[in-house]
């Protein structure tokens, strides 16, 4: 197939909020290329209002696939359906939300469409040859790669909260019910358990106080909780605290949650590149570390050199007085 036969930008995420974010960026790319922007909705008993919402947030077309097999996400039928829609309408660009599920889905879709897949892109643009050019972190976040795909469709996955959704407005668009045979997946989910999430999701928090290996015990995280409480924020941590010590279920960084709070306070965190790659979208970064050479100070807007066990309680007291 000649690459000229591909036209349009298509976006998909099983997470509706992220789908709206993809539409925000997709709109910009589609306008640059002067092509149509479409969104795909998959599920069962889908409320058509959702399709209308997608149009309000920038979609020209919404393809809806409604089938009981699609009620819960399963990469196999989802990849099958998305690749069938793409084969029929031939978008030149497909953006997929890089959620855990999206990461399972995108390479499968790429394989079915015999194309490549650029993963967890943080910047997307169109070059003078009308190609999608992306940048993404590589080698554990220590380098940034700029890439484009030599084949179409050009598939890119985009990390959640990388782009903003557009403000909704009344726009014209079309909702298309895409009829397709959906095959039962070869795997069956036998049990689902809800994951315990403490407090608000870190991705959405506007203030985060995070601790690293400078904190000696799980109990000592109480100091951070008290500071976070006064600032109406959440507590987070580095990977070793969660993955090695098991004190928390998730962590901040390139292999964990990427955050963009208004205020990020890093306590007893050295500032390894894998950690700082996940905090760079924070508006203000404050670091507290006893080692004045700690790399975290390079990423920080404000640095306090000293013992966290003295500084954190003093800050909590000061904020308590200030915010009374
Ligand atoms: C492939 C890969 C992916 C990774 N992904 C991530 C990721 O997503 N997120 C992540 O966080 N890490 C990640 N890591 C791990 C990362 O490389 C670092 O090992 C980790 O971030 C270090 O955690 P830390 O800052 O808590 O600990 P340390 O590096 O041990 O730093 C502890 C800091 O506390 C300070 N300190 C000690 N006592 C005090 C005190 N009393 N007062 C003040 N300061 C004190 C020390 O000076 C030191 O700077 C990844 C690693 C790999 C290989």
If you had to describe this structure to a student in words, what would you say it looks like?
By secondary structure, the chain is of the alpha/beta class. It folds into two domains: 175 residues, HUPs (Rossmann fold, 3-Layer(aba) Sandwich); 121 residues, TPP-binding domain (Rossmann fold). It is built from nine helices and 14 strands. A nine-stranded mixed beta sheet has the order 7-6-5-8-4-1-2-3-9, sandwiched between helices. It has a five-stranded parallel beta sheet with strand order 11-10-12-13-14. Helix 3 packs across helix 4 and helix 5 runs parallel beside helix 9. The longest helix has 18 residues. It is elongated. The N and C termini lie far apart (67 Å). The model has no long low-confidence stretch (mean pLDDT 94). It binds flavin-adenine dinucleotide. Flavin-adenine dinucleotide binds next to helix 6, helix 7, strand 13 and helix 9.
Notable features of this structure?
324 residues, Rossmann fold, 2 domains, nine-stranded mixed β-sheet, five-stranded parallel β-sheet, 9 helices, elongated, binds flavin-adenine dinucleotide
Low-confidence stretches: none
Distance between the termini: 67 Å
Structural class comes to alpha/beta
CATH superfamily of the largest domain: HUPs
The small molecules bound here are:
flavin-adenine dinucleotide
Query: Taking strands numbered 1, 2, ... along the chain, how are they ordered across the largest sheet?
Result: 7-6-5-8-4-1-2-3-9
Number of strands: 14
Kindly provide the name of the CATH class of the largest domain: Alpha Beta
Described by the principal axes of the CA atoms, the overall outline is: elongated
The number of helical segments is: 9
- CATH-assigned fold name of the largest domain: Rossmann fold
* Main beta-sheet strand count, sense and barrel state: 9 strands, mixed
The whole-number mean of residue pLDDT values reads 94
